[in-house]
């Protein structure tokens, strides 16, 4: 049988993305409203986002999460049961948290659904009974996570990277949760659920002229409040590469994370090169880390790299769950691959594939109302140029191998990285001690401790 010759089809021209610009107006209380008319489907979505700066909760850590869980859990306008029954009857989706609310519904019900959203968001009824229920659930969750190795690792990663007094580094414990009262939740809501940093994005089968007076009526009485402004010291990266070890005696594998903090904003010119560099290092199956740790060595089911970006300090983290006996060897390979992306230009073929993947995912997202809402919001909150998303494909296609190399050198700070490992000391420490990397010990809450006794 003669073999057929197949030629791979050539890629077509990059798609052109036309994002409709929102029509905007402000309310006197500071709420900014953005409306994008889209009459393809008889649906509408509402996204209310309160873009407050993060704040630390200290000895009452957990108050904001409790506030999140209680908003929408009853309001002073109609009973909780009537509210839930009506939402079901209208076939709507509706949800609340301490930073906003969301609803989607058929456009013929849009007026009533938006009214229900305001009931839950602006007129919550915080009761002792609901508070006690939600607090008990959170306490149960904390107890369930006591021996969970990934949960411990995640907590310690943030505590060490940001510091436990920073909003991104503090964590909830039984003690901090038990310090929280119903009055604390009410005070948290009053201080932070305010219109001055709030955005309402409305997308769908709705007319700007018709929705504007409805929004003005429903949200006009939302009272202004001065949201507290607190500044935090920028977290410091480690002065040198080091291993921070947490002993979890019940661990059957080790959680390994390489972490450094970064200040990367979406509007920065090296945003796309940095994001692409992170994807090449640990973004998908063919990434450097995955091909090494999983495919070549078989030490893990997968390894990933995540890079944070936004208005506030975030982190770069490469992580994997590794077979205990291979932990020290995996650390060597993590360092090797991170150095590789800082010193070796990515191949044109791999770069082309990664860029094509990004563009494909973007084009798929553009059809979704939730993505359009997020893009409209990002342009405002992240101070992006108005044509940021129109130029998205062009900007990604313009990224070169040199750009990726430069971004990796700027953000992948291997000489100031914490290698945070949570695992069983007896199985792991002897191997780690042979690596000649400074080794420090911490407990499950990121506090310094003595080297564990190895039996």
TrEMBL record:
GO terms for molecular function: metal ion binding. InterPro entries: Metalloenz_LuxS/M16, MPP/UQCRC_Complex, Peptidase_M16_C. SUPFAM superfamilies: LuxS/MPP-like metallohydrolase. Residues 179-357 form the Peptidase M16 C-terminal domain. This is Predicted Zn-dependent peptidase. It comes from Flavobacterium gillisiae.
């Amino acid at each position: 049988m003669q073999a057929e010759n197949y030629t791979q089809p050539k890629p077509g021209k990059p798609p052109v993305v036309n994002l409709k610009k929102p029509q905007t107006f402000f309310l006197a209380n500071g709420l900014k409203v953005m409306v994008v008319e889209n009459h393809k489907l008889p649906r509408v979505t509402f996204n209310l986002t309160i873009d407050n700066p993060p704040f630390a909760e200290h000895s009452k850590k957990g108050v904001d999460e409790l506030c999140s869980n209680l908003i929408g859990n009853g309001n002073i306008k109609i009973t909780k049961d009537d509210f839930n029954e009506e939402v079901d009857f209208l076939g709507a989706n509706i949800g609340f948290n301490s930073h906003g609310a969301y609803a989607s519904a058929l456009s013929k019900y849009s007026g009533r659904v938006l009214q229900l959203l305001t009931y839950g968001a602006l007129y919550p009824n915080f009761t002792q009974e609901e508070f006690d229920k939600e607090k008990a659930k959170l306490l149960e969750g904390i107890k369930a996570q006591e021996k969970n190795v990934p949960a411990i690792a995640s907590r310690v990663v943030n505590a060490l990277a940001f510091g436990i007094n920073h909003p991104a580094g503090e964590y909830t414990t039984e003690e901090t949760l038990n310090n929280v009262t119903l009055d604390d939740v009410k005070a948290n809501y009053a201080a932070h659920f305010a219109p001055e940093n709030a955005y309402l994005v409305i997308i769908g089968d709705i007319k700007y002229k018709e929705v504007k007076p409805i929004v003005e009526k429903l949200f006009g009485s939302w009272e202004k409040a001065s949201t507290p402004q607190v500044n935090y010291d920028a977290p410091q990266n480690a002065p040198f590469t080091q291993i921070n070890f947490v002993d979890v005696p019940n661990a059957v594998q080790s959680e390994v994370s390489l972490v450094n903090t970064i200040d990367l904003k979406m509007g920065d010119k090296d945003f796309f090169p940095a994001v692409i560099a992170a994807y090449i290092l640990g973004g998908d199956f063919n990434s450097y880390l995955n091909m090494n740790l999983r495919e070549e060595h078989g030490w893990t089911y997968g390894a990933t790299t995540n890079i944070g970006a936004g208005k506030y300090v975030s982190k770069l983290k490469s992580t994997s769950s590794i077979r205990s006996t291979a932990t020290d060897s995996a650390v060597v390979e993590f360092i090797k691959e991170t150095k590789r992306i800082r010193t070796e230009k990515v191949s044109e073929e791999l770069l082309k594939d990664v860029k094509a993947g990004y563009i494909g995912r973007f084009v798929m997202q553009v059809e979704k109302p939730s993505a359009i809402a997020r893009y409209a919001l990002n342009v405002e909150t992240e101070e992006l140029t108005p044509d940021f998303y129109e130029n998205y494909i062009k900007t990604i296609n313009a990224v070169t191998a040199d750009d990726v190399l430069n971004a990796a050198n700027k953000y992948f700070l291997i000489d100031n990285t914490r290698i945070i490992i949570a695992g069983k000391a007896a199985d792991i420490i002897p191997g780690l001690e042979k690596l000649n990397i400074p080794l420090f010990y911490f407990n499950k809450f990121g506090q310094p401790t003595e080297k564990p006794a190895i039996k």
